[in-house]
Each structure stands twice: as structure tokens, then as C-alpha cells.
Amino acid sequence: MTAPATYTYDHDEARRYLSQADPVLAGIIAQSRPVRASAHEDLYLALLKAVVSQQISTKAAAAIWRKFEGLFRPEGYPEPRELAQLSDDELRAAGISKQKAGYLRAIAEFNLAGQLDHAHLSQLSEDDFTRHLTQIKGVGRWTAQMLQMFALDQPDVFAEGDLGVQNAMRRHYGLPETGRALLRRMTELAEPWRPYRSLACKYLWQSLDNAPTP
User: Fold this and answer.
1) Distance in angstroms (rounded) separating the CA atoms of residues 152 and 135
2) Which pLDDT does position 92 carry in this prediction?
3) Half-sphere exposure of residue 109, counting CA atoms within 13 Å on the CB side?
4) How crowded is residue 117: how many other Cβ atoms within 10 Å of its Cβ?
5) Of 54, 13, 65, 55, which Cα lies nearest the Cα of 34?
6) What is the structure's pLDDT at 91?
7) How many Cα neighbours within 13 Å face the side chain of 117?
8) On the CB side of 153, how many CA atoms lie within 13 Å of its CA?
9) Whether the predicted pLDDT of 5 surpasses 70
10) What is the number of H-type helices and E-type strands within the chain?
11) Angle at 184 between CA 21 and CA 129, to 5 degrees
12) Dist. CA 148–CA 92, nearest whole Å
């Protein structure tokens, strides 16, 4: 089980560590713009963004999010009580599918129930955090990992199931494997990245120019 992380780590130190630990990653980091800290306390908003961005491109997610914000005038903030009352048709007008509409309302209800407290969730281990969030319909392990990596800025989360990370590692490490063999090989290669696997993933995404937008 991954130990809980309750701090925003030193990204400069982490970059130096990763560059020394892995020559391939060192090359990626040297050619990339610096990844900076991203932690913020609004886990509810981060979770909504993560669900909106599921299985679509970064550009499409940004466009849909702007339309989604437009449903909550004048501030553009999706207050949970308002969101919970929106119909499928209203959300579809913003480009959100019926399935995702249900997921977004479920997140709003979860927040209204007091289940997205930042102080509490930031203390949980990776496994416990995932178990807590996956109580919400439509929220899986990938979404939980995105919140840990971006909203909480936790240092050592490895999103081996993410297609972008897989594609980047295939490209940069010349991996021919597929399926479970690929996941095993990726996990082996990522071992020297501990305790900064999150930052390594962010540079891998950036190398493909398709970083997630939770």
C-alpha cells in the first residue's frame, strides 16, 4: 500500500532525482517545460473536471467544460445543489452524455453528503482514497489517481493504466509488449522513479502533448 502524502513536494528536487535515476526520463525532462505544483483544495470541482475529461481529448474536454460552466451563471461555478437538479437534456446542451450527466449528479450528491472533505481525504493512503471515491458511480481507479496526482499533488502515484502513459512509455522505451505484460514492464521501469512517479507521469504526458485535465 502506498503511504499517504499530505504535502506538495519540491518539484525541482524531484526533477533532479528523476533525471539521475533514469537516462530516458532525463532526456524527456531536459526537452520539456517545467511541470509545476498543481494542488488545490476544491476536490469536488477537480472530480467534476476529471469525469468530464474521461475518454475524450484535452481540447474537447476544455470546450465542454466551458459550456458546462455556462450553465451556472453568473459565476460559472457548479454549485452541487444546482447541479444535482439539472436534467439530462440541460447537461446534454453542454455536450455531456446521458451517462456522464448521471455521474456528475452523483458527485454533487456525494459532496452534499460531506464526503469530499479535503483535510480528511488528503490523509488517506492511495488504496483507501481509491476505495472512498469509487463509491461514486462513474468514478474508477483512473479518476482517483488523477485527483491524487493533480488536485492533491501527491508525489508517488503511477497511472500505469492510463493510455497516454502507456503510449509515451512505448515510444520512449521501445516497449513491444501489450496487455498485462506491458503493465508489468511499465511498473518495473517505474520502480527507480519512486518516490516521484507522479511527476514522471506528468512529463510522459507532456512529451505527447496530451496531459489529462482533471
Assistant:
1) 19
2) 97
3) 12
4) 13
5) 13
6) 97
7) 7
8) 14
9) no
10) 13, 0
11) 85
12) 28
Distance CA 102, CA 88 (A): 8
**Could you tell me the maximum CA-CA distance found in the chain, to the nearest angstrom?**
52
62-78 average pLDDT score = 95
pLDDT band at residue 2 using 50, 70 and 90 as cut-offs: very low
Lookup: cell for 118: 479535503
Q: What is the dihedral of CA 75, 76, 77, 79, to 10 degrees?
A: 90
So what's the pLDDT on residue 4?
Answer: 40
Reported residue count of the chain is: 214
Question: Could you report the per-residue pLDDT of 82-122, keeping only the tens digit for each?
Answer: 999 999 999 999 999 999 999 999 999 999 999 999 989 98
Q: Where are the alpha helices (DSSP H) in 53-196?
A: 58-69, 80-85, 88-92, 98-112, 118-121, 126-133, 141-146, 163-173, 179-190
Rounded alpha-carbon distances, angstroms, from residue 45 to 174, 183, 197, 204: 37, 30, 24, 25
Residue-wise burial string across 20-49, b where 16 or more C-beta atoms lie within 10 A, e elsewhere: eebeebeebbeeeeebeebeeeebbbbbbb
Tens digits of residue pLDDT in 134-155: 999 999 999 999 999 989 988 9
Backbone torsions φ then ψ of 26, nearest 5 degrees: -60, -40
* Integer Cα distance of 66 and 72 in angstroms: 11
Locate 154 and state its grid cell: 501527491
